[in-house]
Amino acid sequence: MAGGLAVTSENQPYNGRITWFVVLSSMIAATGGIIFGYDIGISGGVTSMEPFLKKFFPKVYTEMKLDSKISNYCKFDSQLLTSFTSSLYVAGLIASFFASPVTRTFGRKPSILIGGGAFLTGAALGGAAYNIYMLIFGRILLGVGVGFANQSVPLYLSEMAPPQSRGAFNIGFQFCVGIGVLVANLLNYGTEKIKGGWGWRISLAMAAAPATILALGALFLPETPNSLIQNANDHEKAMKMLQRVRGTTDVQAELDDLIKASEISKTVKHPFKNLIQRKYRPQLVMSIALPFFQQVTGINVISFYAPILFRTIGFGESASLMSAVVTGLVGTSLTFLSLLIVDKLGRSSLFKIGGIQMFVSQMMIGAIMAAKLEDHGGMNKTYGLLILILICIYVAGFALSWGPLGWLVTSEIFPLEIRSAAQSVTVSVGFLFTFLVAQTFLDMLCHFKSGIFFFFGGWVAIMTGFVYLLLPETKNVPIERMDQIWREHWFWKKIVGNGQEYDKTERAS
Description:
This is Major facilitator superfamily (MFS) profile domain-containing protein. Residues 25-475 form the Major facilitator superfamily (MFS) profile domain. Keywords: Membrane, Sugar transport, Symport, Transmembrane, Transmembrane helix, Transport. It is found in: Membrane. It is a single chain. The chain is mainly α. It is 75% helix and 0% strand. It has helices at residues 20-29, 31-46, 50-56, 58-65, 79-106, 108-128, 132-160, 166-191, 199-205, 208-218, 225-232, 235-246, 252-266, 271-274, 281-295, 299-312, 317-345, 347-372, 381-400, 402-412, 416-448, 451-470, 484-488, 493-496, 504-507. Helix 2 runs parallel beside helix 8. The chain is globular, with a radius of gyration of 23 Å. The two termini are 45 Å apart. Residues 1-11 and 500-509 have low confidence and may be disordered.
């Protein structure tokens, strides 16, 4: 496998290469991304299936099929329908805070195991559901699984990866999210054609497949060297694990940084309280701003409701599901491209490229829908196809930038003493705004109509400016020496100062 050195600010390079051991471990852990992506894709697909709507949401089904007076933009507007999608994210938000002490106290591996087990149970309930209560309870268990997995998997990947390849390894999580979305869309397209109208059960139950891989695989995962030192204080075991994952016996420089970070971590008794201290202000801002911006890109308009959106502009049921497959394929492909180039181009360049691409495409989609889609009647197929192409361009921009980098940057910038707590803040903020977008989108579509794309496009412009001005480049910076980027940044150095001297009394508070 490829080798290399990560040069640090103190001219003490970390030795190591990408080993098969770390690749296989990371592949198993990244399955947590598949369960997340699968659920995103599957929920949007089944909510456009007529048998599913007829069984659980008969009012929506009636309005869609029979009520010609309802606006194209309002046919799917149902708080109960959006609750089906968004209930998972409320559960995930709450679960992420329970996941933080588990991850910090017992390690990354137990959190991954809990996530896989909870998701497996939720998938079984969803596939067997016979009423709306059973359906939503299954969604809640899925949310618990996603909450634990999203809190622990990005940390696991960032800690296992060699610094010079950390971007590629971490983006493996988002790549797996894309695979999950794509597989779900393909499955929805196939199961929709099953006679008897029970295909949606297969779609929901098949979430058990990636969940089983994650739960069983977690039993055999090695714990990260960072966690071994933090939880067991076993320097010898951590050194052996570090040697194994780096493929070299010369790991002393990295081990010394891990031990130093662990000693600081153990003085912190209340990580959530410490997170609000001035010296952690940049990390706190990023742990809130990046997941917030990731959701107000409008990506979940596409991820959750792509089939519904395509039906809104006049596509049939099968055509809508196939269009979702196309956008899923585009997203997965561009995420893989991001994985290949992120450690060469850096995070900042990809954020800017993707932001401009998303902004332009959303403005054009909004303009076409405003001009060509009335409240009643369909849209010309040529314009419908043009919207599909523009949505693919938008999805490509997100998959290249905010999709993977929103997870990557937030998992690599936190020092060990607040890492688990800060990641919980990141995940919970993400879930909170995912819930808000999922719960309000159909109502917003009904009221804003085509203006919904101008709304999200405006946020894309704001967030692109934010990362350009306030997010320093993290490429090739070792994870335990990440504090240097804030001390050297034109703005953040005014907040944290030119040197971060740890006050023992402050840390012990």
